[in-house]
Design a protein that fits this description.
With 339 residues, the chain is of the alpha+beta class. It is built from eleven helices and nine strands. The protein has a seven-stranded mixed beta sheet, with helices on both faces. The chain has a two-stranded antiparallel ribbon with strand order 2-3. Helix 1 runs parallel beside helix 4, helix 2 runs antiparallel to helix 4 and helix 5 crosses helix 10. The longest helix is centred in the N-terminal third of the chain and has 21 residues. It starts with a helix and ends with a helix. Bound molecules: phenylalanine (PHE). The site of phenylalanine has 11 residues, from strand 8 and strand 9.
Length: 339
Amino acid sequence: MTLSELESAKAGSLAEIAAAADAAAVEALRVKYVGRNGSIPALIKAMKDVPKEERPAFGKAVQAWRAEVESALAAKGAGASGAKAFDGDLSQPGRWRALGVKHPLTRVIEETARIFGHLGFTVADGPELENRFNNFTALNTPPHHPSQDRTDTFWFNDDCLLRTQTSPVQIRTMLANKPPVRVICPGRTFRRDTTDATHSANFHQIEGLYVDETATKPVSLADLKSVLAYFAREMMGDGVTVRFRPHFFPFTEPSVEVDFSCHVCKGKGCGVCKQSGWIEVAGAGMVDPRVFKHVGYDPEKYSGYAFGFGVERIAMIKYGIPDIRWLYENDLRFLRQLG
Ligand code: PHE
């Protein structure tokens, strides 16, 4: 093909495209000229036969032809890549798909997994239906302890209950693994509480457990404090600190309650922290040797810490949610505000 033949072929192709009456005709012309076996790709393949000195001018002309054909096709509604011509009704209103937002509890759980993930913790899981051993006995909770009471716990029969805490996942994890153990366990928990602004019979906790060999990596209360201080800063913001208050849990010794300094007033005292400057968020302590014995860990060889906190509580203080029930009512006007 000479340059002038090429020019007339180009004019012909553009006229054909201009005359195409419908999408099918446009598509047929796309295939004919710029499709994989179309005439323009064929010319490009045949370039090697064009005498060397004519090649640059010829190549330029072919590329120009291709560009003009593609823009003519596009103007006719064919995608240059060959997509079908749009045949929808542009006068119709668009279909609007609302983007979902994550539930505040999901956010707190995911954020916690991310923060502890940086420290080498993995996520462990356990069932909501538990037995007495995992929920109480192995956690060194005696049968007469009030938490085992029929009025505090949902029992199905003598052995089977809805877990009252995520701590049974500690037991499951240790029974199934040798130390070192470094897990967090988020999950749903149940207590026979009457629902009000701060209580719900159904809520969520996140448990943490770290156990290692005392001789090589002794785990201390100071480690627990520094890990929770890191968590507090990452979750609630820079400047938030933690304090420990002595407490009692059957499965930790010593036991502490953990407060975060108030992220709203920075510890000065405000409505959120009830003027105290501190907000109680978690229970924690060093794993009691009796718990280690129940899971077959030698308490002389291993030491560890555990902590547990309420997900609703963190969500409420982090996002300023005044009533726990809002987290369960699925009112989109509320849920979308945090999107
Ligand atoms: N399970 C305790 C509770 O529900 C919290 C806790 C977990 C305390 C781990 C100490 C260690 O109150």
